[in-house]
Amino acid sequence: MFDFTHAPQRRHSDSIKWHVQDDELPMWIADMDFQTAPAIVSAMQRKLELGAFGYEEPQADYFGAVAQWYQHVHHATADPEWMTFTTGVIPAISAIVRRISHIGDNVLVQAPVYNMFYHSIENNGRHVLSSDLVYTKGQYAVDWADLEQKLAEPLTTLMILCNPHNPIGRVWTRAELTRIATLCQQHHVVLLSDEIHGDLVLNGPDYTPVFSLDAELAQTTITLVSPSKTFNVAALHAATAIVPNTNLHASVDRGLNSDEVAEPNLLAIPGTIAAYTKGEEWLQALKQQLWRNHQLVTEFVARELPSVHVASGPATYLIWLDISSYGKSATELTQQIRERSGLILSDGSEYRGNGSHFLRLNFACPEAMLKDGLQRLKKGLAE
Ligand SMILES: Cc1ncc(COP(=O)(O)O)c(C=O)c1O
Q1: Residues 243 and 333 in one domain
Q2: How far apart are the C-alpha atoms of 240 and 264, rounded to whole Å?
Q3: Residue 3 lies in a domain
Q4: What CATH code is carried by the domain that includes residue 365?
Q5: What does the pLDDT look like over 185-229, one tens digit per residue?
Q6: pLDDT digits (tens, 9 = 90+) for 345-358
Q7: Residue 140 φ/ψ, nearest 5 degrees
Q8: Does the C-beta of 83 come closer than 6 Å to ligand 1?
Q9: Range of 237's domain?
Q10: Nearest-atom index, ligand 1, CA of 88
């Protein structure tokens, strides 16, 4: 019913991902080689036909659509009063870093993690303090003693959580999130949860939005959600901050507004409303395709590349490949693979922590393209 077999032709367009040589195949930056849900395109077309694009402000239907999505899809209640529109998750993270922490403070993260977190922290003159995830027997876990010790440092004022976690695909359980939020509260640290991948748990139990934790715990949290990854609309520049505590909400709202990242472009409101009110069926079909692709990669790696270990959880369309047995850094291997096969992957060292032993592959594309990518990976890694 929906087309997941043809990739939109983005070579020689303004796409960052596809700004590559003609014989190269990009499987790095996190957007998908699928068309978005038809209902989103129709809503945008209706808006364009109007032909008048003055200043706009999201109304109750926008916030209602966000609330209804989280209620219906994730069984989590978010009051529209807690919400502020923002032009993206990263613009919001940078604004919140500036608003909630001070220059010279520690902002806690869990490496390896999405590389833009580091930029949002360091470009604003704060220190990155990482409680690295521990990697044992091919799986990641939180080092609780280390996390507590680092949250307890007096200059740690903000923690940025990735829920679910890019690049490792882990879906944090309610128990783990409760423990993290409790430690943050005990040590007066605001918990900022980036949930951009929350709709993309491909298999197993759903993720838990941080705003839906126990009401007392949620008081010191900020959650950022967006249709961007879910519906492949990154250039829509639309996201929502959800902050249950009135004072903290006012502070975040002021931070987003004074940094001028709280006003929508002409397609952001209709695009988001269409995604959240008419996109569910498409998302279900997408997730089935993504899970098939996930399995295709896992099976290929097990069969053809036994020295590679798949270290990913069931969330996101990004797979985290442990290449430590090759005896070369991820930087060397990404270069080698690109030179030999034209396949472009993300170099795991960008995510810090133990990332220099990993490559990240984006498998959100038609199966034929993915198979081409996997053959290129094999060629690129051959001795
Ligand atoms: C964890 C995470 N947060 C944020 C973003 C980007 O968000 P935005 O485009 O809304 O700034 C990405 C994109 O890959 C991501 O993986």
Answers
A1: no
A2: 11
A3: no
A4: 3.90.1150.10
A5: 999 999 999 999 999 999 999 999 999 999 999 999 999 999 999
A6: 999 999 999 999 99
A7: -100, 150
A8: no
A9: 51-278
A10: 10
